[in-house]
Protein 1
Amino acid sequence: MDDAYSTQLAAADSGTGEADSLERLMALKDADTFLVADGWGDMAGGADGLFDHDTRLLSRLVMTVGGARPSRLSSGVSQDNVFFTCHSTNRPLPPMGGRSAPAGVLHIERRRFVWDRRLFERVRVSNHGMEDVLLPLTYEFGADFADIFQVRGTPRLKTGKLSPPTHDGRRVTFRYRGLDDVERMSCLAFSEPPARLSGGRAEFMFSLPKGRVQDLYIECGPDACEAPDEVRFRLSAVQARLAMRRRRRRGASVRGPRSPRFNDWLDQSRADVALLTTDLPTGPYPYAGVPWFSTPFGRDGIITAWQMLWLDPSLAKGVLTYLASRQATETSAFQDSAPGKIMHETRGGEMSALGEVPFGLYYGGVDTTCLFVALAGAYAKRTGDFETIRALWPHLIAATGWMTKEGDVRGDGLISYQRGADTGLSNQGWKDSEDSIFHTDGRFPKGPIALLEVQGYAFAAWQAMAELAQALGEPDPQQWSNRAERVRNMVEEKFWMEDQGFYAIALDGDGEAVRSIGSNAGHLLFTGLPSRERALKVARRMLGADFRSGWGVRTLARGQARFNPLSYHNGSVWPHDTAMAAAGMARYGERRAVALLLSEIYEAAASFNLRLPELFCGFERTAGEAPIAYPVACLPQAWAAGSVFLMLQSALGVRIDAVAGSVEIDNPVLPVGIERLNVTDLKVGDATVDLSFQQVGLHTVVVPRHKAGQLAVRTIS
């Protein structure tokens, strides 16, 4: 998501282990606390740790049995994303008191979850051997209180003071006073008193008779902790699971009754969106991803909410309300803010508080403000909730004020960007790495830069304002429609490349077209700006071999300067990018293309244990081989998880208009290999309906079921 990725890749290339730690990532999250560990449950460096509000509270937690790491049998995160469990067994134990134990007689279950800013862990050891066992179990631990940007690779010349850890019987307390003069602490506690305890090591010696079980409970959090026990573990586990269940059950559901594997993907994707969603005072907000982006991002939150809008509008309401509360009111080059602009990201760590990085409250995203307005229009149409829109109206007016003033840096009616300070992002669209925008000869364009897809978002925003103004009885709604048409005409005139049958990726500061061929055009189709003739030309090219890897759509067409299937933005495949392109194609009637792309993304997901990463490499698909992972991709990632639901809506041709009280299904197509799909408990205003889709010969038919309330369901074929 930003230039810091170059640091991460350098670390991965140098063999520091960061790539390994992300590849074996086992992530848990609750609100602003998340945990990253390896397949054994150990936190041993790199990206590992227990984090709270962008600060690492626990940087090391490694368990050994008899001085050795146990032999792992299996491990994973539960399908609802609440529990991590590792099953392992002992290696041969050293002789103690004349007794020893051979390998494989102990079953060691390590089970943990995160709840209410705390890590809860239970280690359960069962003796299945023929003899009693003396069990030496050791934990090594540490807390560095590193800021998330330090962990990602941003160097610091100076840090605060880390106090020596203190311990008393069953607890170890760590303290750090930052350069921001804030004291941060964490406490690690055990249910049993260790035989030896120091500031970095706890040694236990358990006598375990044959057939018996020994439990050890552990907790860690950002404040003083009580001695953990079974009751606290069980009660907190129930609360964590119930909270996750509530988030997963928001809105309608989609199921394919005869495809359990496809259902598993849908369940995992829904669970990942729920995992990343934090219930803020303003409503639910999907955080961008773990580990690097477990925080509100403007663009990511908006797009994820849009992907889920047809099923669960509550996400869009929460995102719009939160972003309105963080809308800029002042101009700052360091924050890249100006009145009316919508936040790009916010952070809570020491480096952000000190201004060492600008991301404490950062506005350096050129597209977020337009997307905010466009999502408000889509939300109003989906829900008819004009009470919320009326409350947001001053924020929408302020956002359009930014679009017509500071957002139009070039003064030509297009939205463009040039970063306010050198500490900010050099590229400020969704492809925000340093090398993502370039001319056909590889040169980087001079600013201000007007990105193609951002003009589409602006077009959608102006259209939304016209519809909202009309519905609210605001004066002169036609002014917004006129702006939309002016943007449409300029894009068609300035970005279209007749010789390529495609749109340029951007205009540079001289007004010259940046003629690279990128997936940005798929986002333009999503907004409905292009003429039908041009849209179909773009769709045909994006479905060709230069774009399609066989696992989805590449971010850059093969053969372009700087094309690299290993890159972050110049040839990789991003599931959300493919989904936006697919939804754009569907808008122009290309539903079978959507079904094809959905099938490819599904097959990619199957290779990643049904959990789509942020991105993966764009190498051409080879028979019998899986897609190649990108080494430092976030997993899970909100808009990757939401991609399946946007593509399903697009393939099924579902359009919901709560204002008109209607659900329209336009020429539905089911994914390849899926013969039936059911959408249940779809709420439209005060009405509900279930939709049953079934393949009959060469056609997909839909049957409304259990309709309650005033709702018209229409099909177009």
Note: The chain has two domains: 26-244, 250-666.
Protein 2
Amino acid sequence: MDKHKVLDLFAGAGGLSLGFQQTGRYETVMAVEVNENAAKTYSKNHKIVVNTSDIRSIDFKDYTQFPNLNGVTIVIGGPPCQGFSNANRQKSELFSNNNLLVKEFVRAIKEVQPVAFVMENVKTINSIKHKFFVTTGDQEEISTIGVNIVEEDLYIGNTEYLNEQLVNLYNSSQIRCEFADSNIITKLKSLIRYVNKYKEVLGFIDKNATFFNRYIMNWESYFNTYNNKELYNLIYSFKIMVENRTSNKDLTSTLVNKAIQIIEIQNITLIFKEIIEKRIESSPAFIKVEKGIYTRGYTYTVIDYLIKTFHSLGFHLDYGVLNAANFGVPQERNRYFIIGNKNSKPRLPKIVIKQEEFFNIGNAILDIEGMQPNFSLSDEPLIKDTKKLNHPLNIYLNAGKEELFNHIVTKSTSTALERFKSLGPGQNFHDLDDSLKTTYADSSRTQNTIYKRLDYNEVCKTVVNVRKSMWIHPQKNRAVSIREAARLQSFPDDYKFFGTKDSQYQQIGNAVPPLLGRAVAESMLECFNDRPEIGLKELLKKEKEAVY
């Protein structure tokens, strides 16, 4: 029987595709991934050329350019989707452009017309925080398929920085010319961070004298033709204070307040620009007394849009949250899956490993504890100790290979090493003595995942970019290696990663754990009256416990 053809979108390093491939019943014929390093990792392991174009530019109906798409059985992928907050938003946009990539996944399905699909995403995608705005031209389409549209007031900004006259200006056609130079905004944000850390501003101005002198000469020419005189006046007064700086004790707070005002007005301006450019259906802006600046818009949730759209395309669906640990991954990682099939009702995979039997960190990496990692990407692969753990996960991860690739770390600073030595299994940054926290401006706000020392006997928490989080080996005073992170994500040792160190860590943190992907792939096979060459349950069957 021929294998089922797969189109992999937002493919990353290839974890989801690897899970499908491991069943022996799927063949990936095309993958799309815009990140060059992730695409290289995917290409080297899956032996296909990855399309690195922006997905928005790809015509999936063009079989002349993409002949492999003819006859695709299933489309898989995990389009990024960020949450939306309608208050206290610390950003200069209403919602992330990444949300629109969800619609690109849907467009690909409409154009390819597969029999089935698998969509993976954050576990909270069904929250009301994940939403779209109604835009000019799409209201009829989403209403036709029964998507629920909600009218709501959308927070734009703080009235402290924008008066009614300026709101009227922003509602006019002159909105397009009301922007500060992005270099200035970036520098003012740096100034605020500097003051928060050092409680003074003169040092920052002196260190950035070249920048300030260059822009002071040009600020007036940037803004003297603009209608937004308040923004111009703020920057001009900032200019005067920098030019005539003294040790005046009020200078720091005054400059910071000016900087905050300039940044806030810039953010408000960019939001109005977004409303225009994205053709968001909304009312003119208005002020709510003591609450802020708002516009009235119309929204609908991402999950409602997806479910209604897939139903309208003729798919039978199942959807919900899956925990990777239930499928042999030594990590509790919850992800939301929507699966669809046109021929029969699909079912999300049944649990393979119960909670009391979850595989732990030791099952994944204990056998390579004695192997000193490399520091350079150019170093030769290591040769493993012949001693292996008699555990099904460890046997799977070793993949029958004696060479160990990507067992690489970055050399740690003396400060980091002191922290490593001070922490025991399960502890994190907050367990350090205060004397070892001084490099953090506000140590109380540090997440519990920072400087976390792993514990062999525990199930791993969600793997992210463990280099940035400074995860520590359970027993060694060093960082967790790229290969150890990959094993915690259930990538076997014959799967190699490419790119910079940080890129490899990030690829792994972003990936769908292959064993989780494999479980979903197996469940989809049932709709095709097919079965895997070796089932996941059989692969992970425990015959003998490893003893530590």
Note: The chain has three domains: 4-130+299-353+518-527, 172-278, 356-512.
Protein 3
Amino acid sequence: MRALLFCSALLLALPAAAADRITGRAFATRSEVIAPQAMAATSHPLATQIALDVMKAGGSAVDAAIAANAALGLMEPTGNGIGGDLFAIVWDPKTNRLYGYNGSGRSPKSLTLAHFRKLGLDEIPPHGPLPVSVPGAVDGWFALHDRFGRLPMADNLAPTIRYARQGHPVAETIAYYWARSVPRLSKWPGFAAQFTLDGRAPRTGELWKNPHLADTLQKIADGGRDAFYTGDIARTIDAYFKAHGGFLSYDDLAAHQGEWVEPVSTDYRGYDVWELPPNGQGIAALQMLNVLEAYDFSKIPFGSAEHVHLLVEAKKLAFADRARWYADPAFQPAPVAKLISKEYAAERRKLISSDKPLREVQPGTPRQLQEGDTIYMTTADADGMMVSLIQSNYRGMGSGMAPPGLGFILQDRGEMFVLKDCERKPAHPNCYAPGKRPFNTIIPAFITRDGKPWVSFGVMGGAMQPQGHVQIVMNLIDFGMNLQEAGDAPRVQHEGSTEPTGRNTMMSDGGVVQLEAGFPYETVRALMDRGHKVEWALGPYGGYQAIARDPESGVYRGASESRKDGQAAGY
């Protein structure tokens, strides 16, 4: 039951810990994990152990990340799997630079906007065949492995294949979300047969086996990337969607190709914070940081009304641009350089009032600019390679569409497309089109300082992700928290901004500020006095994993927050 509201540690510790922060004592559920050679932090302890075992066997941080991600697809199907997309940022110590990979898939080429009109839809449904887009995770594994892997891919997948056949005990938070998914998804063909036990979700501690996934991973281990995108797996997916009124086809899978992209950054008080460019939402975090940099948080306490107010107002500004500009750059490139510039932030900052919230926010104009459930994990090896990787089926367990005998569910990322007013000129950048990548919420992050790697981190949770990234950066840099404290500290989430999916109208009421337990009543009252609508969070905003590297000694510090079942460990 801990996942219903907060994990038990937060329920007990947050209010006292917030008071501790005021008196200068540390806020954390445990110490940082410290190790000299390697580190892994994932949302499941068994996946963390697999990552460490792979590195002990001579694998790189990329090998470890692939192995752990495969394990999470088995052990945490509530958030990810090989039916979903993948994004990654890799620090390569040989070239002393970051590499980004966008492993998101495209919409089916045979599914047209006219078909949605024929069905009378102005939104893409969250489940079933219509929101399914090409899964990019397996392609991402092999692209990363081709450049940075050391061990054979079969070695990286072997631990998960073994657990899939022999079984593993289901973790507490995962069991909770699995039970919530079963009633919604069981009507879709293949789901109940492959993801329930006699029609129910597995319970906490109950052994779960997935022999179909084991067979699928073995085919990938033996046949490589093509086994998934042009082999029997692709043919099974093609036949399944043809039989059930879907559009994802063999040709869509065979045509898929992810891409290496250049990470983009902004300087925040001497630290370079890195994200990937659209079709993801990472640059929203950079836009927020640019706005917030002008305020002196050495004089603004953590958890104060001023801290929360400025954070929320910066979010509103960034998310107005997010709704207008972020989309597949192959169809409409966003003006990224302008959006993340300091000059643009200075102009936008003028809209913020110190004593009242913004009710409405328009996106920046073309004249000024000129020409989003998930898992996050991070690994680091003895050579200094660090991987920031995020992977998702999008909404919980995905679309519910589970092709027979494959042991995984296809993502529902296509739900993020816009259907309204797409015939108008100019149309919204995220309007549906065949062969297009939807707006994507999953974003890995990285921080460097003086050209050296410092922190690889991420935060799960749809639109919370850029908000969470900013809060982690501020906790580390502005409020002097350590890696574990930065993740355990209570979080703020603002809801109500205009979305890039066209699912609501332009924000007109200022939205809602949601606070996790741990913020003092004085903050709540002061925010309400300023005109904010404030609510206590209905669920935990997590989870977070991070690895930091000491630039002199090379020692790693790891953290995994208490909102999830995860673990950071090293050797």
Note: The mean pLDDT is 91.
